[in-house]
Amino acid sequence: MMTHQYKIEIAREGKWWMVYIPDIDGVTQARRLSEATTRAREYIALDQNVPYDDISIETASVRMQDPVFRELLESARGIRNMRAHAQTLENEAMRNAQEFALWLTRYGIPVRDVAELLDISPQRVSQLANEQGDERGPGLEGLDPDDVSDLLAKLESSVARRRGVSPSPVTAVKAASPVIGTRLAQPAKVPIKKVPTKAVARAKTGATARRTTGQRRSRG
Q1: Could you tell me where the Low complexity compositional bias lies (predicted)?
Q2: Confidence of residue 41 (pLDDT cuts 50, 70, 90)
Q3: 48, 137, 158, 168: which could form a disulfide with 132 (CB 3.0–4.6 Å)?
């Protein structure tokens, strides 16, 4: 099958889009921009006596009479490229969010804290963690200690910043610890010296006697 390729130039005139076909010095019109290619193929098929399905159309330009918006196609293509790039970044961010959510939840970080960190709902965090499943996502045994420490430090710092408080020293030490699962040493307990019961009783009796004497003097 032989394909016949033609370029078209589209210009706005009144309420119509005029479709120019320079290769054959032809012109047709369309009410909607989405109809321009179809109208051009119909015109070419009839004028050149070639099958409709064998015609390929490339839009070379889209213009308006207003000089401010004279050329539309290049601007539109630029916006399309930006949207495509944004979609690529969104897909990459989603993959990273899935891995991030899975690692943190498996490491015991509450779903709500992960949601706070990623600025998404807790339900979305659960969905992201479950989408990867056991086969795709890394388990705790696959975590590098430095990576885990970095993730925990970022989590604690982000949550503290959102709540307007300083990161707790204990949490900061845990997040920076290069050893997973190592417990921090507990502070030594200071022994409390017990006072004999009889001494406590004598102290109470003396205090009561002093209060009674003071009351009598005030009445006198």
Answers
A1: 197-212
A2: very high
A3: 137
